[in-house]
Amino acid sequence: MSNTYKSAGVDKEEGYKTVDKIKKAVSETHNSNVLNNLGSFGAFYEIGGYKNPVLVSGTDGVGTKLKVALDSKQYGSIGIDCFAMCANDILCHGAKPLFFLDYLACGKLDSEIAAEIVLGMVEACKDNNCALIGGETAEMPGMYKPGDYDVAGFCVGIVEKDQIIDGSKIKPGNKIIALPSSGFHSNGFSLVRKIFPDFAEEFEGKPLYETLLVPTRLYYKDIHKLLEEIAVCGIAHITGGGLYENIPRIIPQGLCASIDASKIQIPSVMLELEKRGNIAREEMYGTFNMGVGMIVVVDPAHAEKVLHLLDDAYEIGEITEGTEKIDLKF
């Protein structure tokens, strides 16, 4: 019997089935700027309507949150997570997402699982007026075990050069406004899984995995609603490293984000994790978003308008002079 690619563990037919299952849905994310369809060696996207456009790109994955999804056989939200982690990053610079590409790797491809993951990306792209214009599915037996998957993505957005937000306009007296997260988002799951090894255990009346797999919140509509109304001085996406690592990324030298931690609305599942794992509060804030998925820094004259425009936003601090860049007061 002769050897074939399939006998080595790669089933091309399953890949074709995946494409068939997602092709129509993916095409629904396209607009007139997308010049070709799935199947080409590269994806074409035409840019127009900008005076001095700057492309802003971001890439990310979902980390070991994927393990929760795979073990629980719940795949629908992971594609949303992948898109959100990339798109929320470029929002920090005022960019509008244009297009997204995904990369899905596995040990043995199951077209049903792969399609469900990609269809989550489709849902997120539609919500963000973004086109899913390409991707790659890699079946790698021997590298991944059967049933193992990894997923990553790449998002490109656009902003006028004179409208780039980079934190350079932040000054003392500016207010720091929190936009709540939808949960852990896609960070810190190596520690989450250590403390919560049983994803099926009951938590607040339902299986724990339902709480853990709530998808990362998409902030596109909120952020661009603000940008249409006011001048935003700085935006930070609170991902790995929590508030301690992400807020300082936008704070200029000589200034400090002074934050009153007592104002932060911490999700109950994070409080349970902290208690059960005997985790120090500082460690929690240096690992998880603690309920703050994104922060915006605005002139104090605009703070009330932000709170009016975004129903669930709330103030947590202000910018002061200092050398530490962040001062989190417990």
Characterization of this structure:
There is one protein chain. The longest helix is centred in the middle third of the chain and has 17 residues, at 111-127. The chain is α+β, with helices and mostly antiparallel strands and 330 residues long. The strands form 3 sheets. A 6-stranded mixed β-sheet has the order 8-10-5-11-9-12. The mean pLDDT is 96. 32% of the residues lie in helices and 25% in strands. It has 11 helices and 12 strands. Helix 1 packs parallel to helix 4 and helix 3 packs parallel to helix 4 (111-127). It has helices at 12-27, 65-72, 78-91, 111-127, 189-195, 208-212, 220-229, 242-246, 268-277, 281-285, 303-309, and strands spanning 53-61, 96-106, 131-139, 149-160, 175-180, 202-203, 206-207, 232-237, 255-260, 292-298, 314-321, 326-329. The protein is globular and about 75 Å long.
Task: State the CATH topology of the largest domain.
Answer: 60s Ribosomal Protein L30, Chain: A
Q: Shape from CA axes? A: globular
Largest sheet: 6 strands, mixed
Strand content range: 15-25%
As a whole number of angstroms, the C-alpha radius of gyration is 21 Å
Helical proportion? 25-40%
**CATH level 1 name of the largest domain:** Alpha Beta
Overall number of strands: 12
CATH architecture of the largest domain: 2-Layer Sandwich
Q: How many helical stretches?
A: 11
Could you spell the SSE succession in H and E letters?
A: HEHHEHEEEHEEHHEHEHHEHEE
Low-confidence stretches: none
**Numbering strands along the chain, what is their spatial order in the largest sheet?**
8-10-5-11-9-12
Tell me the CATH superfamily of the largest domain.
PurM-like, N-terminal domain
